[in-house]
Amino acid sequence: MSIQIFILGALTEGEHSPYDVKKKIVEVLNNKIEKASEGSLYYQFDVLCKKGYIEKKEVVHSDNRPNKTLYGITAAGRDKLIEDIYAEFQNFTSVPALYTSLLFSDVVDKQKLSYLVEECIQKLKKRSNDSVISNAHLIPENKKKSIELISNHILDYLEKDIHWMENLLLYLREQED
């Protein structure tokens, strides 16, 4: 979904061709969006166009280059973008999965997004609590140190993610005003 969010978000900022959006993905996210190959990007443009979320605006002709089709977002596309951003936070799995949605969070209600971020923080805290080994007496002696190291690593990452989400929450609350 993040590639569609990126396309729709980019089109809220103006008309673009698939090639222009690909350049933005490389510039902004260092091409870290899953399935952001040129072929899949053009496919996603076709999908979004068929669903009425974007539309062809203009074909730019050039003598020494192939024609370039510029696309714009529709009202339905703006609604879809907002819906998808909320869904990314509601279905939170990891912090990196939120990066694309965060880039275009200026189009959503900050108060609602703050509420969703609070829910994400609670999920992370629950994961952190669930990660604590409560049945240490059941672990074979020769595995205890390995499991302790694994558990500590998991907890360290969860603490960093919680801290990041809390900073995001502060940022969003500042934007609410």
UniProtKB/TrEMBL annotation:
Domain Transcription regulator PadR N-terminal, first and last residues per copy: 7-81
Q: Which InterPro entries match?
A: Metal_resp_DNA-bind_regulator, Tscrpt_reg_PadR_N, WH-like_DNA-bd_sf, WH_DNA-bd_sf
Q: Where is the signal peptide?
A: none
- Record-linked Pfam families: PadR
Q: What is this protein called?
A: Transcription regulator PadR N-terminal domain-containing protein
